[in-house]
Amino acid sequence: MSESCERHESPDRLPDRQPDRLLARAPAVDCGGLPRSRSAQPAVRDLLASAARCLLEASAAERAGERFAAAHLAALRAAAAVLASCSRPNRRSRPRSVWELLAKVAPELDEWSLLFAAGASKRAAAEAGLNVVTAREADDLMRDAEAFLGLVANRLGFGHQLVVPASPLRTVG
Fold first, then answer.
1. Which entry of 23, 41, 52, 80 is 20 to 30 Å from 147 by CA?
2. Dist CA 137 CA 143 (whole Å)
3. Rounded to a whole number, what is the largest CA-CA distance in the chain?
């Protein structure tokens, strides 16, 4: 994976984009009853931009494992943006995965949490260089991560500013 996807960089601004008609009416993330954190907006924006860069990297990757890992990391950063947008929960609680926290903070994203949590061990194996992912699995996860990022960006009020790359069509054979 390249540095742009691995390292969290802060862009000057996200490129402008017309809102997606299908996502434009999506309700805002409710933060599980917690108040939204206005001071976190720069961090949320940076995480969304980083997720978009990971998707770009995934779309350019030749190997299925690289595509899978970069797409999963894009979804992870989009989930982190949701968590960053909400006020912090009790710091005394035990450490939890991002996917577990996302399901609690944004119950409407529970199915996405389950989907990406299921792929976490495969991402780790792919990052270690093991051949555990087929081209089909990588492409499917890339499309799912792209849809998830678009949904999260829209619900957090950044959908009109985020450019999400279109998934390239690949021949699975």
1. 41
2. 10
3. 50
Burial letters for 118-136: b for 16+ Cβ neighbours within 10 Å, e otherwise? ebeebbebbbeeeebbebe
Query: For position 42, which CATH number holds?
Result: 1.20.120
> Which H or E run includes 144?
helix 135-155
Question: For the segment 37-47, what is each residue's pLDDT rounded down to a tens digit?
Answer: 566 688 888 99
Instruction: Work out the number of other CB atoms within 10 angstroms of the CB of residue 107.
Output: 13
pLDDT tens digits, 134-145? 999 999 999 999
Amino acid at 126: A
The region, left, alpha or beta by phi > 0 then psi within -120 to 50, assigned to residue 2 is beta
The total number of structural domains in the chain stands at: 1
DSSP conformation class of 157 = T
Residue 64 covered by a domain: yes
Query: Is there a domain that residue 23 lies in?
Result: no
What number is the average pLDDT over the span 16-33? 42
